[in-house]
Design brief:
Pantoate--beta-alanine Ligase, Chain: A,domain 2, DNA polymerase, domain 1, alpha+beta, two-stranded parallel ribbon
Length: 287
Amino acid sequence: MILLVVLGLLLSVSYPAVDAFYSVWRADSAVSTVAAKRRDAVFLDSALRKAVEVLKRDDGAYDALSEFWAKPIVLETPVGELSVQIVDLDRYLNLNLVGRNPLVTAAFERLLLLLEVDYELLDRLLMWSGVRKPSGQPRTAFPVKGRPLDSVYELLYFWNETADLYGGNKGGITYPGLLELTTVHSDGKINLNTAPYWILRSLDDELDDALARQIIEERERSPFKSLQEVLRVPGVSADLLYRISKLVKFRSRYFKITLKLKRGEFQTVLEAVYDRATDKVLEKAIY
């Protein structure tokens, strides 16, 4: 039933609002790419409002990967194929809290160790984000920003090890990159129901491979709604739960919404970051 509601909301995107645009587009095959992008933007803006409405309707006590919003959706619409993907950002480590929040800093250090990334990256991050003043000549290709990051892609400005950022194979093991495990939008707490394997491993030294997989298996069976419920995972002790209690949560606040409209070879993408607590779209880009 919930899925039907979601589909209904997305399918109810304001076609009349873009009908005039697309009537012209169909009549004029020589329409420019710029004009087509503008028309798609009208449609995608309407679709974004519907996606936000879906998240606002989800008022449960927890967020998990089994929920309807976490499932990618592809819809055939009168104006093309629309794909919708929503990812909560509370599953990742916040780069702007490294050096400012001791728990996040410790987790990030563990993540670097797990991914076999040189700790020099941490030093450069602290300088770039303004936590630490540069000493001597910074080893970066760009002037040090000295302020919090606006995007995780700012890592590219001071770190050129591609495998560390985008992932790769080290010693026969495939590792993800930091760009897919970090964010600049979160309160610092990690949603235990949605956190990737490597983020789970970074929460505590005791959280080894076996325990991280146990947590993933248990949350797939039944998402966690409280700290007490995490104790049902074999191997999770009261001591471990106490240590991570101030670093984890079960409901997310920030979401990245990606909408793609495709007609043949032509595609327009809208990416937005939505803060459910304040009901505001913090970022939006169309390309």
